[in-house]
Design goal:
CATH superfamily of one domain: Aldolase class I
Number of helices: 10
Distance between the termini: 15 Å
CATH architecture of one domain: Alpha-Beta Barrel
Strand content: 5-15%
Strand order of the largest sheet: 1-2-3-4-5-6-7-8
Largest sheet: 8 strands, parallel, barrel
Number of strands: 8
Radius of gyration: 17 Å
Shape: globular
Length: 248
């Protein structure tokens, strides 16, 4: 199995203010120069510029972008706009946006393509609900979602995938290691089927109630190339142990 540099990304969601620059500084001081792992933070859009100026080796990303370059899209930001603010990548297709904003796989693919056009990276999220998990068809559902969400220009130099068991986000529930391994192996197979050998270089992050207590076990699972971390990324003291747990 190809060894990829771990990628640990904090998604702050709708949390944070300018006072929290101190948290970013603490994370950057401790992990920003660690060449064995890539570290990212996705703050609210209002903080991207300020965070980018104080990143200290931490990659700063957006939580979403619009697929269009400009136009009558009130409240939305284009890839060029988030790039100008200082972001180097963006999350697309997060389960909360798929659910709350009704985003489709086609929408997600278009957003990822827009990021590529703007020379930005993308973390493309896929995952299943509790009902879908309990149906016994989780792998088929999530791999189909990935196949439909991949942009035509997908390549390992700018695209990562994040698997989110939706039912585990923020609940403290985590799939057992064998379930995580099976899903990540299936996602890897989908990537190589669609992208050929290039698919082996795409990092597949795990995102579902990752914390300091379970990070080492999760990050040691084959084909888990990092973590997309929610609540535990909001404080340096809970995020740094996850970074430190990543295999080097």
């Amino acid at each position: 199995m190809r060894q990829l540099k771990p990628y640990i990304v904090g998604n702050w969601k709708m949390n944070g203010s300018s006072a929290d620059l101190a948290i970013l500084k603490a994370i950057a001081d401790a992990a920003g120069s660690d060449t064995g792992v890539d570290v990212g933070i996705c703050p609210p859009a209002t903080l991207i510029a300020a965070f980018a100026q104080s990143a200290g080796g931490v990659h700063i990303g957006a939580q979403d972008c619009h697929a269009k370059t400009s136009g009558a899209h009130t409240g939305c930001l284009s890839a060029a706009m988030i790039k100008e603010a200082g972001a180097t990548f963006s999350i697309v297709g997060h389960s909360e946006r798929r659910a709350d904003q009704g985003e489709t796989d086609a929408d997600v693919a278009a957003k990822a393509e827009a990021l590529h056009d703007a020379v930005l990276g993308a973390i493309l999220c896929v995952g299943e609900t509790l009902d879908e998990r309990d149906s016994g068809n989780a792998i088929a559902i999530v791999t189909a979602q990935l196949a439909a969400s991949l942009p035509q220009s997908a390549s390992a130099d700018w695209l990562s995938v994040a698997y989110e068991p939706v039912w585990a986000i923020g609940t403290g529930r985590v799939p057992v290691a064998d379930d995580i391994a099976a899903m990540h192996a299936a996602l890897r197979a989908t990537l190589t089927d669609r992208m050929g050998a290039e698919g082996a270089g795409v990092r597949i992050l795990y995102g579902g109630s990752v914390n300091s207590g379970n990070a080492a076990e999760i990050l040691a699972i084959p084909d888990v190339g990092g973590a997309l971390v929610g609540g535990a990324s909001l404080k340096a003291e809970t995020f740094l142990p996850i970074i430190q747990a990543a295999p080097r």
